């Protein structure tokens, strides 16, 4: 879809506010015609007929009312235009945000956060001028000049002909200049997106840059990118000012020509004029005043559309990025079974499984791209109510397995079964409602601790939140805070330690009360005391649930009912800790390499380092 077609397709988002803006604009134009006629009557009566205040008093009163009504109409039009733009902004933000949710983490991992943030903020804000200014201006340009011509031609066809001939010059030069400005607008938008992305990356990695002494070099790079953006902005402004000057020039030329024709013919009423000028139709002072006052009103919509044409170009440059994002297709799900059980009308089956339920990977293959296989015939089963641990070196496929289960990826081939149902047949929203996920680095959002725990159950009462916090061993430190569960935390849990954040994430899982819990290295990077508390919470969380653990801590692995050792996208070994330790396989080598610890220390081993041996 082209940019213009895309922008027009979102016009319905503005709703009735846009139609009201256009209607008020037309009404304001009609009031301007009436105002010009009344002014002409008053001036003609005072200047040429010698009328006094008594004779024109009623006309002055009507003119005052017209001034007030026209001013009120202009105010209503501005208000309606703002409402139309606000509706479009909110609707588009909702649409883009929901589409990004559907695209999932895999898509976002390949995009620069700064560019996406710029698109969702300034990019969508740049569309305001298109819907609030350009579209009404374009519609009024097609209506008001025609109405004024209909009024002017009966009064003086010469002035009407001048208007008719000079009017097309304004949009013609607007298009000629605008075609040059559009490429500059697009370049400016790309420079802004690049600057935003780079600046955000620099801010996020500021600590690393400081430690490696690279902060000054990056500051110079930010300055260089900022200067490039400044240069592209000045180029756009240069063209914008030039086009405004050209449009004003042609509008002034048109008004001047009309004034010359009107003026010379009025002058000819008292002085002899050339024969060719005398051949033109006569005109009265009243008609002349009326036409001269209407001339600026005739060119005003054309000039306004030319000015607002730059709002359209800015919107087109911003829309290109949105079209790219909205045209991206979510990860295609595997083809469902021909006759899945309990298939709903939507095409997805409802989850029919006991609590807790088991899951099974059947010959699952997955490739991120051609020639890059992440999983090669992954085959394993997690029985209902069991605790299964996934271990392996970096790149073995642990994260891919988790993302497949969470529904962020779909198998290239093979099946994932939940109970006896294929995951591809299930509605993702319903499936995820049966999951609880505790990642290695949980995300806390700015707000209260209670709201962060309620993330999975927004309607949970405070007693349920407290009970979940107690079971996650988080109640003690929460209740010691000044505001308790209403205590505010910063973005990403600023103000809390890593162990406290991890226990809040566990509290979320307890509150959600899901039958399947996925723990992604939940005890990594914690001090011994925090690890002990988190581990106690995990022990309680595992009761009556199916637990799938990606683990680096030996203590976590030892407690698993079954350990799956992944290598090169396959299950290389499977068994209990004792069985695998006694064998001479990958797991045993991991234990031998990293299982020896000093007295009093926690058993820690890091399978990610196994590749270094």
From TrEMBL:
<dbReference type="Pfam" id="PF00005">
    <property type="entry name" value="ABC_tran"/>
</dbReference>
<feature type="transmembrane region" description="Helical">
    <location>
        <begin position="284"/>
        <end position="302"/>
    </location>
</feature>
<dbReference type="GO" id="GO:0042883">
    <property type="term" value="P:cysteine transport"/>
</dbReference>
<dbReference type="GO" id="GO:0140359">
    <property type="term" value="F:ABC-type transporter activity"/>
</dbReference>
<dbReference type="InterPro" id="IPR014216">
    <property type="entry name" value="ABC_transptr_CydD"/>
</dbReference>
<keyword id="KW-0547">Nucleotide-binding</keyword>
<keyword id="KW-1003">Cell membrane</keyword>
<dbReference type="InterPro" id="IPR027417">
    <property type="entry name" value="P-loop_NTPase"/>
</dbReference>
<keyword id="KW-0067">ATP-binding</keyword>
<feature type="domain" description="ABC transporter">
    <location>
        <begin position="359"/>
        <end position="593"/>
    </location>
</feature>
<feature type="region of interest" description="Disordered">
    <location>
        <begin position="331"/>
        <end position="350"/>
    </location>
</feature>
<feature type="transmembrane region" description="Helical">
    <location>
        <begin position="239"/>
        <end position="264"/>
    </location>
</feature>
<keyword id="KW-0472">Membrane</keyword>
<dbReference type="InterPro" id="IPR003593">
    <property type="entry name" value="AAA+_ATPase"/>
</dbReference>
<dbReference type="InterPro" id="IPR017871">
    <property type="entry name" value="ABC_transporter-like_CS"/>
</dbReference>
<feature type="domain" description="ABC transmembrane type-1">
    <location>
        <begin position="22"/>
        <end position="314"/>
    </location>
</feature>
<feature type="transmembrane region" description="Helical">
    <location>
        <begin position="21"/>
        <end position="47"/>
    </location>
</feature>
<dbReference type="Pfam" id="PF00664">
    <property type="entry name" value="ABC_membrane"/>
</dbReference>
<dbReference type="InterPro" id="IPR003439">
    <property type="entry name" value="ABC_transporter-like_ATP-bd"/>
</dbReference>
<dbReference type="InterPro" id="IPR039421">
    <property type="entry name" value="Type_1_exporter"/>
</dbReference>
<dbReference type="GO" id="GO:0005886">
    <property type="term" value="C:plasma membrane"/>
</dbReference>
<feature type="transmembrane region" description="Helical">
    <location>
        <begin position="157"/>
        <end position="177"/>
    </location>
</feature>
<feature type="transmembrane region" description="Helical">
    <location>
        <begin position="130"/>
        <end position="151"/>
    </location>
</feature>
<dbReference type="GO" id="GO:0016887">
    <property type="term" value="F:ATP hydrolysis activity"/>
</dbReference>
<dbReference type="InterPro" id="IPR036640">
    <property type="entry name" value="ABC1_TM_sf"/>
</dbReference>
<dbReference type="GO" id="GO:0005524">
    <property type="term" value="F:ATP binding"/>
</dbReference>
<keyword id="KW-0813">Transport</keyword>
<protein>
    <submittedName>
        <fullName>ATP-binding cassette, subfamily C, CydD</fullName>
    </submittedName>
</protein>
<dbReference type="InterPro" id="IPR011527">
    <property type="entry name" value="ABC1_TM_dom"/>
</dbReference>
<keyword id="KW-0812">Transmembrane</keyword>
<keyword id="KW-1133">Transmembrane helix</keyword>
């Amino acid at each position: 879809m082209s940019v213009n077609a895309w922008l027009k397709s979102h016009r319905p988002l503005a709703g009735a506010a846009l139609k009201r803006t256009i209607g008020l604009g037309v009404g304001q134009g009609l009031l301007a015609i009436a105002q010009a006629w009344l002014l002409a009557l008053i001036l003609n009566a005072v200047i040429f007929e010698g009328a006094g205040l008594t004779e024109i008093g009623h006309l002055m009163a009507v003119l005052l009312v017209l001034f007030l009504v026209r001013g009120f109409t202009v105010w209503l039009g501005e208000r309606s235009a703002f409402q139309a733009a606000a509706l479009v902004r909110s609707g588009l933000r909702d649409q883009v945000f929901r589409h990004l949710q559907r695209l999932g983490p895999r898509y976002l991992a390949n995009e620069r956060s700064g560019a996406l943030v710029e698109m969702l903020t300034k990019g969508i804000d740049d569309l305001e001028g298109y819907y609030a200014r350009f579209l009404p201006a374009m519609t009024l340009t097609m209506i008001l000049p025609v109405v004024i011509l209909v009024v002017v031609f009966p009064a003086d066809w010469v002035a009407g002909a001048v208007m008719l001939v000079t009017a097309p010059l304004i949009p013609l030069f607007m298009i000629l200049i605008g075609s040059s400005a559009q490429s500059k607008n697009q370049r400016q938008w790309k420079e802004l997106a690049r600057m935003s992305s780079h600046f955000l990356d620099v801010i996020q990695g500021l600590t690393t840059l400081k430690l490696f002494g690279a902060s000054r070099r990056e500051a110079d790079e930010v300055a260089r990118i900022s200067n490039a953006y400044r240069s592209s902005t000045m180029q756009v402004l240069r063209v914008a000012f030039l086009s405004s000057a050209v449009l004003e020039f042609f509008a002034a030329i048109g008004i001047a020509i009309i004034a010359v024709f009107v003026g010379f013919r009025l002058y000819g009423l008292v002085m002899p004029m050339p024969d060719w000028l005398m051949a033109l139709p006569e005109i009265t002072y009243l008609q002349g005043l009326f036409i001269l006052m209407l001339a600026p009103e005739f060119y005003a919509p054309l000039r306004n559309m030319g000015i607002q044409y730059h709002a359209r170009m800015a919107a087109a440059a911003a829309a290109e990025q949105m079209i790219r994002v909205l045209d991206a297709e979510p990860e295609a799900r595997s083809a469902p079974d021909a006759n899945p059980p309990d298939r709903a009308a939507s095409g997805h089956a409802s989850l029919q499984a006991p609590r807790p339920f088991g899951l099974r990977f059947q010959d699952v293959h997955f490739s991120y791209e051609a020639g890059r296989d992440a999983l090669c015939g992954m085959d394993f089963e997690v029985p209902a109510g069991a605790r299964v641990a996934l271990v392996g070196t970096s790149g073995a496929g642990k994260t891919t397995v988790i993302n497949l289960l969470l529904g962020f990826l779909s198998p290239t081939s093979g099946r994932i079964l939940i109970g006896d149902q294929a995951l591809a047949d299930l509605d993702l929203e319903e499936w995820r409602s049966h999951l609880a996920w505790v990642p290695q680095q949980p995300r806390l959002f700015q707000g209260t601790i209670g709201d962060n725990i309620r993330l999975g159950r927004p309607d949970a009462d405070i007693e349920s939140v407290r009970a979940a916090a107690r079971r996650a061993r988080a109640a003690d430190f929460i209740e010691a805070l000044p505001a308790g569960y209403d205590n505010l935390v910063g973005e990403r849990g600023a103000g809390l330690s890593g162990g406290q954040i991890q226990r809040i994430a566990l509290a979320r899982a307890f509150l959600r009360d899901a039958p399947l819990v996925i723990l992604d290295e939940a005890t990594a990077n914690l001090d011994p005391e925090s690890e002990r508390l988190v581990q106690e919470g995990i022990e309680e969380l595992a009761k009556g649930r199916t637990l799938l653990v990606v683990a680096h801590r030996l203590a976590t692995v030892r407690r698993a009912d079954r350990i799956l050792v992944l290598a090169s996208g396959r299950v290389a070994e499977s068994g209990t800790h004792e069985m695998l330790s006694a064998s001479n396989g990958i797991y045993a080598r991991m234990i031998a390499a990293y299982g020896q610890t000093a007295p009093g220390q926690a058993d820690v081993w890091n399978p990610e380092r196994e590749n270094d041996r």
